What we know:
Aspartate Aminotransferase, domain 2; 3 domains; seven-stranded mixed β-sheet
Amino acid sequence: MHTVESARWDAIPSTQVLLQHPALRDLGIDGGLLAALVRGAVQRLRSDPPPTREAAVQAIVAAVSEAAAALRIPRRRYINATGIVIHTQWGNAPLARAAQERLLEAAGASPTGAREIGERAAACERLLVALTGAEAAAVTTQNAASCLLAAAALAHGRELVCAARDLIEISQGARLRDILEAGGARVVPVGAANCVYPEDYRRAVGPETAAVVRIHASNTAATGYTSHVETAALARLAREARVPLVVNLGSGSLVDLREKGLPYSPTIRDALRDGADLVLASGDKLIGGPQAGVICGRRELVERLARHPVARCCRPGKLTLAALEATLASYVAGRAWEEIPVLRLLGASQADLRQRAEALAARAAEASLGAEAAPDTTECGGAALPGVPLPTWTVRLTHPAMACDALYAALLRHGIAARRRDDTVVLDLRSVLPEDDPAVTAALLVGPTPR
């Protein structure tokens, strides 16, 4: 005897019938996977079947379409017109052309496995030694991995003395103290949240001290009543205590930004010159390569890290190493300011930015957009130069039929990531490479349309 519920259940078409629905055939999903999604959607209707066959089909098609949408790879290629040069939400800074080509080359028919990784790592290490003056160098997957490795290799079961103000949170709840302690070290914070003095370190250093750690808190700007111990003074203190000084530069740099009139940001060479025994930095950010960790310093310490079991867990793959070696080669050739995108963007002159902004505003007007070229300020981003305003030129856009948020979303669909201010969409040229101007112009000329 059929109940009302069983009759409603019987009204649901079979999986084979559902698979022939036009909306499902066009999803571009493998047949076996699509069938599994359909069966799952049908099963979820068991507890409350729709009243009619048509309603059941609509519910199943909607559920399967939603599940299939979650399996599609979304657009990943965007032009960063936010003005923030190293924007962690939009993929940091783009790789240099040579690095992109080297990465693609490594992805193709080339030797694989440990042999190639070893050869590429050795090449990166040679280049880093030449660029920084270090005795030895190593590469990890990221700077946080370098911190973990240094703690495990140098201070497992022992103490790392570090200023309390240096123990920052780097991103998304990841805190440097937690990372160092995950490597087995006992972190001994010294000083206060805003001030630390040499005597604070001297009182803390003892028989259990494995190293003194100095962290350049590059993603925070401390102002007002603050004090820190410079690297050179801390190096003398560490030598007196017969322990190594480990300096984590965060973003780090291989060139002096003051060459282009920018504020000073510590370089790896400077930190080594000031007496650091081991220097850690990010391979991306200001260096402008792929996400990686760079370790430079005394040979004995670098080799201790390289021999530690954790080093195998922090070893980058051949694609990362391929991009990094090409990036470092630009520095060795003396072409970093011309070839490394992050340096090109930071070093762009106001005159050039203004000329490009005015040209872009003129083209935007052709698409019936309200457009005004205007000076502004932005920031570097990427945990570099915190609190430092960078002069820039922007194009401020309005649309006669679209609100600011709708215009922003329309440009985003065309692959342009902008920012919003005072009911206008702002395209900031500080973070846009000149060769991307045609793509930005094309997105405007297509004509953002309401959705």
